[in-house]
Design goal:
The chain folds into two domains: about 100 residues, Orthogonal Bundle (Endonuclease Iii, domain 2), CATH 1.10.1670; about 110 residues, Hypothetical protein, domain 2 (Endonuclease III, domain 1), CATH 1.10.340. Helices cover about 55% and strands about 0% of the residues. The protein contains 13 helices and no strands. The radius of gyration is 19 Å and the shape is globular.
Amino acid sequence: MKPTPTDPAQRLRLMYDRLANAYGPQYWWPSQTPFEVIIGAYLTQNTSWQAVEVSLANLRDARTLTIDGIRGVSVERLQELIRPSGFYTRKAPALKAFVSMLDAEFGGSLENLAAVPTRTVRNRLLALPGVGPETADAIRLYALKHPVPVADEYLRRIAIRHKLIDPIPGKNRKGYESLVRLTGDTFASEPESSHAQLFNEFHALTVAVGKAHCGKVPDCQCCPLVDDLKHIGTEASGRRPNWIGRSNRDGNQDIGR
């Protein structure tokens, strides 16, 4: 058996392989169109995906799950349709603002937006209401097919509990960017043509293991990543080690905001 590498990026690359073997392809993002990905990225903030699915079904039934649909629906009606996702009074105007930006600057075309340099796209998205780094990066990766990493709370927990980043990444822009850099370093040696798919699968797999084992209280037994904990000298138990930050919480949120 090969020894576990000590470099954080190399360790995380090995962890990715273990997750892929354990869970298989994740087929993310669950959607029918790129625009549906964008709607989902907005709606999933601070709520569960199950709640988002109800809102998406409402939008689909009302024939508003399109650019034309969001453009034409009133803010009040949109709030009613996405109410199951929570924070609907904030999310509805944010969705309208995205479509207004798309119309004013990109001819109402996601293809035109996707053709813009990825850093420019990120800066433009971050200037919109309701968009933080995680949402912007999810849109770039999953809707626009840009080869960019996405980080979230589950990856932050993994990085903390496996001691992959020092200092510990906070729930702020600096912490988010440190997780993105670590993910980029993890796959830096892979062909650039494979980056989009690797970042896609990696993010999906961290969500899978996060839901199964890396909640507010870790459940390390039977986790595919338990061997890496042995590497850093942490016992595999269901109890919270005393070095894990107690501010961790479940739920999707834009951790870079």
